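Morning. Coffee machine broken again, so started the prediction first thing and wrote up yesterday's gels while waiting. Chain of 118 residues, entered below exactly as on the submission form.
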Amino acid sequence: MENLPPCPKCSCEYTYELNALVVCPECGHEWVPTESDTEGGGAAGERVVKDSVGNVLQDGDAVVVVKALKVKGNPSGIKAGTKVRNIRLVDGVDGHDIDCKIDGFGAMQLKSSVVKKV
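Came back before lunch.
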């Protein structure tokens, strides 16, 4: 069993992992553990987000979607090759770490694994 951090809200030591989250069974608090929480230290650095080919992404970059994406509630989806400008990196849910606006679709969150830096 891994050495999981105690709950930051109630200090319960019986936390457990649920997918990418750590959950407290006593108060129900869920959070994403940082590397320093799980490894017991480490360099306090900024999170690095890379695209599908390994380029480091930053806020304000332009990216291109590399694979066709289905969009719930929209019959056409997002085609491969769609250019997205002025992205913003966020701590999203389920790996969706890019916040952006796509022409014709509006505000969306994308996974960095389906985009390539221009």
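The radius of gyration is 17 Å. Going to sketch it on the whiteboard this afternoon.
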